[in-house]
Amino acid sequence: MPKTSARLLSLLSLLQARRDWPGALLAERLDVSPRTVRRDVDRLRELGYPVVAMKGPDGGYRLDAGTELPPLLFDDEQAVALAVALQIATTTGAGIEEAAARALHTVRQVLPARLRHRVDTLQVTAVDRPAARPEPQVDGGVLMALGSAVHAREVLRFDYRPVSGPGRGSSGHGAGAGSVREPSDHNPGPASGQGPEHPPPPRRVEPHHLVTWGRRWYLVAWDLERDDWRTFRADRIAPRTPTGPRFTPRELPGGSVAAFITARFRGVTTAAEDGVGGWPCRGEVILGLPAADVLRHTREGIVEELGPDRCRLVLGSWSWLGLAAAIGRFDADIEVIGPPELAAAFGHLATRYAAAATPPRRP
Fold it and tell me: What are φ and ψ of residue 206, in 5° steps?
């Protein structure tokens, strides 16, 4: 590599490493004269790098933001991190999968062999759970608009498309072991008297966080009309412009966005501390199985050993029928301790299963 080109790369690396550089210090680090530094800065500007000269007793330079993206320079760790992040971005459902895949191909092409091998050892494959309909994709422009409003702390106005079809507001009704359900207040129905001829007015919120949960994107915001916290599916949001005035962020319940989202998706207002995950339906049973066998298949819940072949199980779910079905999968004798709603759910399922086991009458 010609000496001048190598020096330009070294100068660019230094400018990226810190915000401001005195001209004399740059010359010392590059072992050249201040005049050579000025010429090299001019060459970088010709290549599209917005290097700003600072006035003052010592003078200096700063790599500023420009109008176009110039060639970038990464160290080894940055290059690997970028390639891995792009590979993960192809699985996010954010509507940027194709662009991320093209960017990953571009980065991989120019990686040295030693770094390309490190990147190729990590292959990420996104496997979606079977569903009646595919997960909705979010427009990248919508995510950018939401993220900008969160960053600027500006009131956001948007139209919110309602849910249609069966299973409204939910993507699962199972028990705590692996089920996911959307918070019940994330999509309140239209007000009385509203319909296709009279669409609801745009929502006005203070946006606080843009989060992902279960391969879906959500906006956590304070709803100014309802005077309460809400979560909104990003794929149903159509932002309006301009945004509103700036606001002072409120304190999020739970102390963190992670605690808030976990609590909302489990149907409670505060994080549970009883070991059952805060599910709205919780029951207690005695199973005719060793505690070790039940523990292997219970990610959430409390299992207490009562003997070599008996244990107590406390488990939660979104519905009593879902809880009864989840307990029934253990294929063991069941003694219901409580509450009565759980016992009634077992009776309801017993009737339904008995009917399903009876061959249908043919004419």
Answer: -100, 105
> CA 263 → CA 10, 96, 218, 248, 273, distances in Å?
50, 29, 14, 24, 11
- pLDDT of the chain along its 363 residues, tens only? 347 777 887 887 788 777 788 888 888 888 898 889 889 888 888 877 788 888 776 678 888 775 455 566 677 777 777 777 777 776 665 566 777 777 777 777 777 787 777 777 666 655 555 554 556 677 778 888 888 899 899 999 999 987 654 334 333 333 443 344 455 444 444 444 455 566 788 999 999 988 877 667 889 999 999 899 998 998 899 999 888 899 999 998 877 887 787 777 765 544 444 444 567 788 899 999 888 788 777 766 778 778 788 888 888 887 899 899 989 888 889 999 989 999 999 999 999 899 888 877 766
Q: Comparing C-alpha atoms, which of 3, 214, 210 is closest to residue 93?
A: 214
Closest CA to 119 of 75, 71, 90, 76: 76
DSSP 263-312: HHHTT-SS---SSSTT-SEEEEEEESS-HHHHHTT-SSSEEEEEETTEEE
Signed CA dihedral, 149, 154, 159, 161: sign only: positive
* CA–CA–CA angle 285, 288, 289 (5° rounding): 105
Return the half-sphere exposure (C-beta side, CA atoms, 13 A cut-off) of residue 336: 17
Strand order in the sheet with 228-233: 228-233, 216-223, 203-213, 156-160, 237-240
Please state, in angstroms and rounded to a whole number, the distance separating the CA atoms of residues 345 and 179. 19
- pTM for the model stands at 0.50
DSSP-based three-state secondary structure for 219: strand
